[in-house]
Amino acid sequence: MKRLVSISALLAASLAMAQSSVELTPQIGYNVAEKNLHLKNYKVYGGEIQYNGFDFALKPEFTYYYSLTDYEDNFENYVDNADTNVKRFALNGVYEWENVKNVTPLAKVGIGYETMDSAYGGNSAHSGFVDAGVGAKYPFNDFVALKLEAIYMLKHNDARYDNNLLLMLGLNFTIDGSTQKAAPAQPAKIVPPVVKPVKIDNDIDKDGVINKLDECPNTPLGLNVDAKGCTKIVNLHLNFKSDSTELADGIKNNTDEFVKFLKIEKEYKVQIIGHSDSSGNSKHNLELSKRRAEAIKKLLVADGIDAKRITTLGKGDTQPLVSNATKEGRAKNRRIEANLIK
Predict the structure, then answer these.
(1) Distances (CA, A) of 69 to 33, 74, 85, 87, 230
(2) Quick one: which of 27, 29, 199, 285 could link to 317 by a disulfide (CB 3.0–4.6 Å)?
């Protein structure tokens, strides 16, 4: 256990150098060794660091594993109760599939290096290996997940190749290296921020845009407008469950202020626009964004807004606000916007 804590501390110290989202996974597992290695099957301790800052399909991952094991009983030229430690370092590329029924399947491939302090029976004290593995992450929330992996290792021992199979279990922590995670923000109010009216005699609606340039001269006082004097698109700050049109828990009240505005300003119509991140294919994302926009329309109608005042539009993954390379970025891109129309 002391070794596992030391390994986790070493990996955590490396996070200070990261400038984007990283994943830290302390692990424990079991190694099944090929018979001609003459080693008993043994426990494995270690951890992984995965860097998510590149906008690339394969994410780099550094792995360290440590084990202490015995040679088989009655093994030729071996002293009774002799043991050896096994240390492994690996660099892998990890590919993840997202939004698969709230599970994140993954596959990995890479190269590594192994050392043994007591190498008998054709084992090398120093050897290189290639590895490949599959696994899955089962999230508890956006920052913590259970991670399961099966990893095959093929290493070169003197004049032969030998096999090991690792079965690993760990807790996966997502950490933002550029800014510390803050406590969840309170639901954002939907009414656009109030702007101080510019004192201009020929500004009939007091929105700061003079009449001759104002294409929407009757916008209500305090409504944020663009350079043409018309309302801007409003982000409703609504989040959905993964690959679903169901709102995340506690999110629905984000529409309350927007509904109040529509009930007061009855001359306004609204276009609900759905957006998605880049997970999945573009056709699926477009359909999902349309269905999410329709779901918000149903919410507004249920709250007393006339359905004839509401239209919907899906944009899929074509208009991201930020990069989709990180989990945080993808969450920002999965959004619902409202375009107020007069």
Answers:
(1) 11, 15, 6, 11, 72
(2) 285
